[in-house]
Amino acid sequence: MKRVLRESTAIPAEGETVELKRSLGEWKEIEETCAAFATAKGGRLYIGVADDGRVVGVQIGKGTLEDLTNKIAQNTVPKLVPAIATQVRAGATLIVVDVTESTTKPVSAFGRALRRSGRTNQVLSAAEIAELYLATRGVTWDQTARPDATLDDIDRDKVQRFLARARAEREWAIDPETPVERAVRQLNLVQNGQPTIAALLLFGKNPQRFLVQAKVRCARFKGDDEVEFLDLKVIEGDIIGQVEEAMAFVRRNTSMAVKIEGKLERSERWEYPLDAVREAITNAVCHRDYAASGNVQVRIFDHSLAVWNPGGLPAGLTVEDLRRPHESKPRNKLIADAFFLIKYIEQFGTGIRRMIDDCRAAGLPEPKFESYGDSFRTVFRKTIPVEERFAGVGLNERQMKALRYATEKGRITLAEYAELVQGPKRTLQRDLQELVQKGLLVKHGTAKATWYEAGQ
Prior knowledge:
Blueprint: E1 18-21, H1 27-39, E2 43-47, H2 64-75, E3 76-77, E4 83-89, E5 92-99, E6 107-109, E7 112-117, E8 120-123, H3 126-135, H4 156-170, H5 180-186, E9 190-191, E10 194-195, H6 197-203, E11 216-221, E12 229-235, H7 239-253, E13 256-261, E14 265-270, H8 274-287, E15 296-300, E16 304-310, H9 319-322, H10 333-341, H11 351-361, E17 368-371, E18 375-381, H12 386-389, H13 397-409, H14 414-420, H15 425-437, E19 441-444, E20 451-454
Parallel strand pairs: 1-2, 11-15
Antiparallel strand pairs: 2-5, 3-6, 4-5, 6-7, 7-8, 9-10, 11-12, 13-14, 15-16, 16-18, 17-18, 19-20
């Protein structure tokens, strides 16, 4: 059915579900965008519209729409047949192409698998293609079997410990003495008599024999850059044990502060809330891309702690979505199911919210969540960097340096400021006075004894 919009309806700006094309001469880019839309959430192309939203129109002949439809179908796999219609706006004719989300992903154009991300069409990596292919068929990569593995590669003691813990944590009705083969079958960890990737990662005698990349690298650095190591550990073995060993490394390399609160009650707090850090590490181990060659990494600095894993967010999920109630979309379904049974995770998409709440309760900034397409990072911070904290306040680069110095050293004087930056004395005095007026610095003393401390 042909859909017609009123001419008064504004053409939206380009974005995740909108693309503007000036002419049919861009037919190759049009077909690539159709493929990218179909791999993502679907979208609409306006042909005959300039990048700035001006309607310029297109010339349409007798077979124009049919030719465009055929070109899209011929150059996409699986074949796409979008809805194509014409519209008249401001006296000019344009073409509207509506693409629905494909049930089979990814969709390729001219031999390249594409997915829409923001305003651009991204070419997918081999790992992303494999993950999407399996996901649209209701399968995750950890459900695939290893043809070179047998049930003899599964550690009986690890299985029994897991069953006992699942029974205690979730009241799972299973005997911890259940034979290994029956237990892993009940956990859906066997395909055609062979252990799956998940089975080997969870209970393997030597998981790295099959997946050398399945490691956690932990490092404690001196200062706030990655130059000098103070402590380093590469954790192998099964992924349940990896979580525990990584947490032991965190406890060894972070400190606990003791506070005396009301009525002389003693309160002990770690630098970072351990439950939040554990959630981040568990998520990284559970949801990482095990087809990728990288390792999960835990990096501890003087003023921050970062947890990094290979594999970005699932298709259709953004960092902004994580902060709201959202559907849980595990990359590794069998691993997630097993972690749920031992209360390593909850399958309700609430983990990020708990991390945020834990940091707030500890008086720390919210964690930063960053997705780079092929990786994901969670960063815990003791304080918010000056540049981020005062962005939009209207400070110049010199003033940012003054605030950073005052924050790190506890105070700053005019002489110290002059050593820190270049500029006439009058300019530097004006800089500091503006910071005082804005409440970002507090002035103490008079004349040459004047000094400044960071405001609250």
